[in-house]
Amino acid sequence: MSKTRIIVAEGSRARTFSLVSKHEPLAEQEVLLNPSAKVHESELTSDLPGRTVGVEGGKHALEPGMSPKEAAVDAFAKQIADKIDHARCAGELDEVLLASAPKFLGLLRGHLTEQSARLISKSLDKNLVGLDAAEIRDHFC
Q: Mean pLDDT over residues 62-66, rounded?
């Protein structure tokens, strides 16, 4: 079995393909879903941010560093990075070709271990998740 994977991802879905050769069709191996990325923000939390009294005595809402939706997308990027690292450690992976929208690609790269990041031989800052396997292969081969 080939140890080269093509991973196309966005905040709500990731697809993994095995690349045997530049001329053979891609074999889709796995689809990961993150339904929280498509849920409206208000459905992820029913509570409003807490309130505090400011220096001037006025009340204002506390803003968390990351919204629940952003946190769900970040956790999904970590899940994908963890899968890459696990496959590398298990000897199932020698090379990764990666495509994702720029923002999600940055999140994903931020969660990769140094060893796993070295396996990425090509990355595209494009969202290819919705394309068929032949179109995805054409972007890399």
A: 60
